[in-house]
C-alpha cells in the first residue's frame, strides 16, 4: 500500500571543631518546655555582642502516689459507676472523680483502669438479660427493651463524662481498643440483643407492629423509631431486621396484589397502589432507616405494578380511554412510569398518543408533538456525549454492511441514518466510521459497495458535502487505483519485464485516509524490485508526488504444495514473509524469524499465532500451546489438510484498547479546536465587537477557545468594558483557512 533568597545564619569553625552561638531574640527561648524571659538572670552578664551562656536545669522528681491510693480511688469510681447504673445519687463530687481518673492515668495505670471499668459495665449488663428471656412477646416486651436501651445510653454518657480523660488519652492512643461509648454498645449488643430469644422476640414484635399499621391500626410510632434506631446504632439493622422486613413486605403485597386485582376495578386499584406507595415512603421518613427506602419501594412497585402490568391494561385501559378519564390515565402513567422495560415504554407512549388524539390535540398540533419527541430522544441519546457517536460509527453500520446483501439493508440504512441525525458529536462518528470504512475497503470486507455508497449519499444529504468529502475521496482513490493498475499491467507487458509475481497497488491520498504508522520490514528481492518498477512508473506520470509503502495493509496469495496437493493461501504481507522463510530452511526460532523479517515483536507474535495456533495450522510450533513464547520453534506442516483449495488465514487482530479509542477521540477534539477558532474569528470579523453573553450563546467549548485566541493575540477584551471582545486587525487570515 502507498500513502501520501538570602540567609542570615552564621557559624565559625576552627581546628575541626564548631561552636554554635545562641542569639537572643523576640520574647524568649524555649528549652524542655520551659519559657524564660529574654532578659532574665538565667543568662550570665557579658558584654554586648558576646555569646551568652544558657543554663538548663533538670525537673524536680515526679511526685509519687500515696500507698493504697490506686485501690481506694478505684473503689470510689466503682461506687460512682454502680450508683449511675442503679439510678441512685453519687456520694462524691463529679469534679473530684474526674481528677481521680486523671491522676491514675498520669501515673500509667490507664490499662488497669480501662479493664476494671469494662468489667464493671459487663457485670451490670449481664445481670439484665434474665428479665427478657422468659418475658412473653407483647408490646410491653418491646417497651421494656426500649427502656433498658434508653437507660443504658444515659448511663454510658454519665460514665464517659467521669472517665473522659481516660477516653481521650489512653483509649485514643490505642487503636485496637473501642472508646468507652463503643465499649458500652459492644457489651449491650453481645449480651442483650445478640441473645437468640431476645433478638427473635424483638424483631418479631417490630414486624408485628408494622403489619398492624399496614392493616389500619394505630400504633406507637415513637417506640418503633427508638427500637429501629437502637438496631442501627448496634449495627445489626440490615442483618437482623431489614432482610426479614423486605421478605414480609414482599409476601404481604404479593398476596394483596393478587386479591385486589380480582376484587377491584382498575381506577380503584391504581388509587390503592398510589396510597400504599405514599404510606411506605412515610414509614421511611418516620421510623425506618434511609437505606431501606430503595429496596422497599422497589418491592412494592414490583408486586403491585410490575406483576400486574398486563392484567391492568387488559382489564381497564380501554375503559379509561373510552370514557376520557384523564385523571385516571394520568395516574396510570405516573405509576407505570416507575416500572422499567421496553413494553412498559410502549404502553406509556400509547396512553399519551391516544389521550392526545381523544382530546383533538394530536390532529391540530402534530408537528409540535413530533418536534418535542425528537428533542426528548436527542437529549436521551446524548446523555453520554461521545459514546453514541462511537457506537453507531464503529459497530452498528459495519454490522449489516459487512453481512451478505439482502433486501432489508435499505431499511436498516434508513433506520441507522435516523439515529445518526440525533447525535450531537458528528465529528466523533466521522472519525470512527472512517477508520472502519478504510478497513472494509482495503481488505475487501464489505459485502456491498452499493450499500456503502448509499450510506455515504444519505450522510451527504443530512450533513452536506463538506462532511463527506474525505469519505468520498476514499472511494475515489479505490477507483483511480484500479485504472492505474490497468495502465501498469500494460506497461509491464510493453517493457517485457520478467517475473512471476503479480503486483496490485492501491494509491491512498494521505488527507483522506486514517493515519497509519509505517513499519519497515525485510522483503524478498523480487518484491523490492517490483516496488521500484511501480515507483518509477507512477512518479513518471505524476511528478512531485511521494510514495510511502504501508506494509501493515498489504496482503498476498501464495501457492503451496503439500502431500495432499496444491493449495492457495490468502494471507497478510507479514504472514507471507514468515512463510517464505521456510523455502530456505526447515525450522526457525522466534528470534531468527524476527531478525530475518524485521517485523515488530508484538506483531510477529500475532502473525505466528495465526499460522501455528489457528484453525488452519500451516506451521507446527514446538512446544504446542495457544500463545507464542520466547524460544518457541516453528517448522512447516507438510501434513496440512483442508477441504478448500483457496484458504484465507486471518491475521489475529489486536482488540482495540481503551487507550486507542481515547486517542481517536483526542484527535477529534484537536481538529475541533481549529474549527471553533475559525468560527469565532468569522463571527468577530462580521460583528467587529461583541458582548460576552452573546458570544457565549454560540457553540459549547467556546469559553476555552476564546481564552486561547486571547492568549495568542487574535482577539482582546475591551479595556473600558471587559465584557466586550474586539478582533485584532492583523488576524483576518484565520477566518479564511
Automatic annotation (TrEMBL):
Keywords from the UniProt entry: Isopeptide bond, Ubl conjugation
GO biological process terms, semicolon-separated: protein ubiquitination; ubiquitin-dependent protein catabolic process
Pathway: Protein modification; protein ubiquitination
SMART domains tied to this protein: CULLIN, Cullin_Nedd8
Domain Cullin family profile: 372-612
Keyword Protein transport belongs to the record: no
Family matches, as Pfam families: Cullin (PF00888), Cullin_AB (PF26557), Cullin_Nedd8 (PF10557)
Molecular functions per Gene Ontology: ubiquitin protein ligase binding
Protein family membership: Belongs to the cullin family.
Protein name as it appears in the record: Cullin 4B
Amino acid at each position: 500500500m502507498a500513502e501520501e533568597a538570602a540567609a542570615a545564619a552564621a557559624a565559625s569553625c576552627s581546628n575541626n571543631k564548631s561552636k554554635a552561638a545562641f542569639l537572643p531574640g523576640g520574647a524568649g527561648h524555649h528549652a524542655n518546655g520551659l519559657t524564660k524571659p529574654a532578659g532574665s538572670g538565667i543568662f550570665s552578664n557579658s558584654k554586648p555582642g558576646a555569646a551568652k551562656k544558657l543554663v538548663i536545669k533538670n525537673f524536680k522528681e515526679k511526685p509519687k502516689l500515696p500507698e493504697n491510693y490506686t485501690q481506694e480511688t478505684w473503689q470510689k469510681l466503682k461506687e460512682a459507676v454502680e450508683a449511675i447504673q442503679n439510678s441512685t445519687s453519687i456520694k462524691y463530687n463529679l469534679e473530684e472523680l474526674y481528677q481521680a481518673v486523671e491522676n491514675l492515668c498520669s501515673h500509667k495505670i490507664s490499662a488497669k483502669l480501662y479493664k476494671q471499668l469494662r468489667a464493671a459495665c459487663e457485670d451490670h449488663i449481664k445481670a439484665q438479660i434474665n428479665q427478657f428471656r422468659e418475658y412473653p412477646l407483647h408490646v410491653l416486651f418491646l417497651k421494656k427493651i426500649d427502656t433498658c436501651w434508653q437507660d443504658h445510653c444515659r448511663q454510658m454518657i454519665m460514665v464517659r463524662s467521669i472517665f473522659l480523660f481516660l477516653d481521650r488519652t489512653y483509649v485514643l492512643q490505642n487503636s485496637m481498643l473501642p472508646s468507652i461509648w463503643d465499649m458500652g454498645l459492644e457489651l449491650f449488643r453481645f449480651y442483650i440483643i445478640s441473645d437468640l430469644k431476645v433478638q427473635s422476640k424483638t424483631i418479631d414484635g417490630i414486624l408485628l407492629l408494622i403489619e398492624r399499621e399496614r392493616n389500619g391500626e394505630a400504633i406507637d410510632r415513637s417506640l418503633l423509631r427508638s427500637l429501629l434506631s437502637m438496631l442501627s446504632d448496634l449495627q445489626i439493622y440490615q442483618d437482623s431486621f431489614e432482610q426479614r422486613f423486605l421478605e414480609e413486605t414482599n409476601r404481604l403485597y404479593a398476596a394483596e396484589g393478587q386479591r385486589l386485582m380480582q376484587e377491584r376495578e382498575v381506577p380503584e386499584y391504581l388509587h390503592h397502589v398510589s396510597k400504599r406507595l405514599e404510606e411506605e415512603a412515610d414509614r421511611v421518613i418516620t421510623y425506618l432507616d434511609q437505606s431501606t427506602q430503595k429496596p422497599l419501594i422497589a418491592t412494592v412497585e414490583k408486586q403491585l405494578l410490575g406483576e400486574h402490568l398486563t392484567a391492568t391494561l387488559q382489564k381497564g385501559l380501554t375503559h379509561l380511554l373510552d370514557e376520557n378519564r384523564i385523571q385516571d390515565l394520568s395516574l396510570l402513567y405516573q405509576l407505570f412510569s416507575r416500572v422499567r422495560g421496553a413494553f412498559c415504554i410502549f404502553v406509556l407512549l400509547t396512553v399519551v398518543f391516544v389521550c392526545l388524539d381523544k382530546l383533538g390535540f394530536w390532529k391540530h398540533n402534530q408537528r409540535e408533538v413530533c418536534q418535542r419527541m425528537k428533542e426528548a430522544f436527542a437529549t436521551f441519546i446524548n446523555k453520554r456525549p461521545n459514546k453514541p457517536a462511537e457506537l453507531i460509527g464503529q459497530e452498528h453500520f459495519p454490522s449489516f454492511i459487512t453481512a451478505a446483501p439482502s433486501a432489508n439493508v435499505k431499511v436498516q440504512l434508513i433506520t441507522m441514518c435516523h439515529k445518526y441525525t440525533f447525535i450531537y458529536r458528528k465529528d466523533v462518528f466521522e472519525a470512527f466510521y472512517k477508520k472502519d470504512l478504510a478497513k472494509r475497503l482495503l481488505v475487501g470486507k464489505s459485502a456491498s459497495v452499493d450499500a456503502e455508497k448509499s450510506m455515504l449519499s444519505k450522510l451527504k444529504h443530512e450533513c452536506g458535502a463538506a462532511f463527506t468529502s474525505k469519505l468520498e475521496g476514499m472511494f475515489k482513490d479505490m477507483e483511480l487505483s484500479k485504472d492505474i493498475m490497468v495502465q501498469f499491467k500494460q506497461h509491464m507487458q510493453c517493457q517485457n519485464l520478467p517475473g512471476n509475481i503479480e503486483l496490485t497497488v492501491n494509491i491512498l491520498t494521505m488527507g483522506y485516509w486514517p493515519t497509519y504508522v509505517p513499519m519497515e520490514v525485510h522483503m524478498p528481492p523480487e518484491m523490492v524490485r517490483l516496488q521500484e518498477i511501480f515507483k518509477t512508473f507512477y512518479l513518471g506520470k505524476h511528478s512531485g508526488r511521494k510514495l510511502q509503502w504501508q506494509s501493515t495493509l498489504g496482503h498476498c496469495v501464495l501457492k503451496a504444495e503439500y502431500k495432499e496437493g496444491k493449495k492457495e493461501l490468502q494471507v497478510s504481507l507479514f504472514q507471507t514473509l514468515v512463510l517464505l522463510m521456510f523455502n530456505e530452511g526447515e525450522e526457525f526460532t522466534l528470534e531468527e524469524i524476527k531478525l530475518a523479517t524485521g517485523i515488530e515483536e508484538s506483531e510477529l507474535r500475532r502473525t505466528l499465532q495465526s499460522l501455528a495456533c489457528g484453525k488452519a495450522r500451516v506451521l507446527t510450533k514446538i512446544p504446542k500451546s495457544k500463545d507464542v513464547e520466547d524460544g518457541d520453534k516453528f517448522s512447516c506442516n507438510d501434513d496440512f489438510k483442508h477441504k478448500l483449495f483457496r484458504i484465507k488465514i486471518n491475521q489475529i487482530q489486536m482488540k482495540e484498547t481503551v487507550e486507542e479509542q481515547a486517542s481517536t477521540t483526542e484527535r477529534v477534539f484537536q481538529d475541533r479546536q481549529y474549527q471553533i477558532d475559525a468560527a469565532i474569528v468569522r463571527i468577530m470579523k462580521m460583528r467587529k465587537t461583541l458582548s460576552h453573553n452573546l458570544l457565549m450563546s454560540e457553540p459549547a467549548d467556546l469559553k476555552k477557545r476564546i481564552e486561547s485566541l486571547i492568549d495568542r493575540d487574535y482577539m482582546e477584551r475591551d479595556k473600558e468594558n471587559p465584557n466586550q471582545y474586539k478582533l485584532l486587525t492583523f488576524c483576518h487570515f484565520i477566518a479564511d483557512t
